Amino acid sequence: MTPLSRRAFATAVTASLLAGCGGRQADRGAGRGTAAARPAGTDPAATRLAGTTASPRPAAKSVHPLGRSVPVRLRVPAIGVDTPVMSLGLAADGSVQVPPIEAHDRAGWYRNSPTPGQTGPSVILAHVTVGAYGDGVFRHLARLRPGDRITAGLADGAAPEFSVTDVTTVAKSAFPTGAVYGDVDRPELRLITCGGPRSGTGYLDNVIVFAELVPTGP
């Protein structure tokens, strides 16, 4: 397990996860959700996802991990996303930060995770809605399908491309922490937002997209 992956996983297990929702709670200025992160295996979906993301795969084509360089842009053509990316850390209460609720919202990379293209799961969050401003950057995240492409623009000029491998919606009360933050032996990407039915304080579920780096050589 790489130091960055280990740190991200430990943080996720001990802190509450926020995946940007922009529901009523955010409108009141909280800017954070209340989904409790749980280790993988707390529900069938978590078990399935953990097995999928952690299993070894045949190396038909070699994937070459990139050096560390922070993401500055994210493009997901299949759902019309082309957004700047900001850096996110932890809030004062130990939850994962999300981008601010504003008219021109943007995605945020969780800086305790690897950068896109490094070995391990790089995690990017964004809102599904932004209160009175309407749709958020990840409004249509659940529409992605396996094989759709995602490009991360990095500060050093690199633009690694990822292919979607899975899209799932899970209850926040059973968030598959191990599958999302757990160590993997190749560069992967996670996109997270809120979804499912609304409650008095926002959304009840999380939409999670899993993707892996596309090989660039033979």
Automatic annotation (TrEMBL):
GO molecular function, one term: hydrolase activity
Biased composition (Low complexity): 33-48
InterPro entries: Sortase, Sortase_dom-sf, Sortase_F
Spans annotated as Disordered: 22-65
Keyword terms, alphabetized: Hydrolase, Lipoprotein
A Pfam match: Sortase
Hydrolase as UniProt keyword: yes
Record protein name field: Putative lipoprotein
Native organism: Actinacidiphila reveromycinica
Taxonomic classification: Bacteria, Bacillati, Actinomycetota, Actinomycetes, Kitasatosporales
